[in-house]
Amino acid sequence: MPARSDFQYTIIRVVPRVERGECINVGVVLFSRQLRFLGSRIELDPVRLKALSPGVDPASIQPHLDAIQAVIDGDPAGGPVARLAPSERFGWVAAISSTVIQPSEVHTGLTDDPPGTLRHLFDALVTVDRGPVDAET
Description:
The protein is of the alpha+beta class. It has one domain (5-125). The protein has four helices and five strands, in the order E-E-E-H-H-H-E-E-H. Strands 1, 2, 3, 4 and 5 form a five-stranded antiparallel beta sheet that branches. The longest helix is centred in the middle third of the chain and has 16 residues, at 58-73. The model is unreliable at 131-137 (pLDDT under 50).
């Protein structure tokens, strides 16, 4: 069994009306220095966003989430921040802010499979279990 290494993660949240503090989780960013891994999974659910804040257009939020993804991926579309070292990019994304897109506090854990852990965290913290699908709906 491979040795497990430490990791940090933050949950990316959309807070459509900052003054109300209501949010939906839209992504997870995971960083493991020892395993040289920085990855994220970010997906905005427009139905959940509309339920929380009917007046917010998902198209106004998506470009900001895409920018976060570009920074994490080291994609030049992420601007100068995307050229930073992985630990600095994680720190930039995880920095507390009071904008419409906010990270949670940073959490830690142990893993021997960062991509699998990222999938697990995304499924547990972001995905909404809609129950069985009814073929007639």
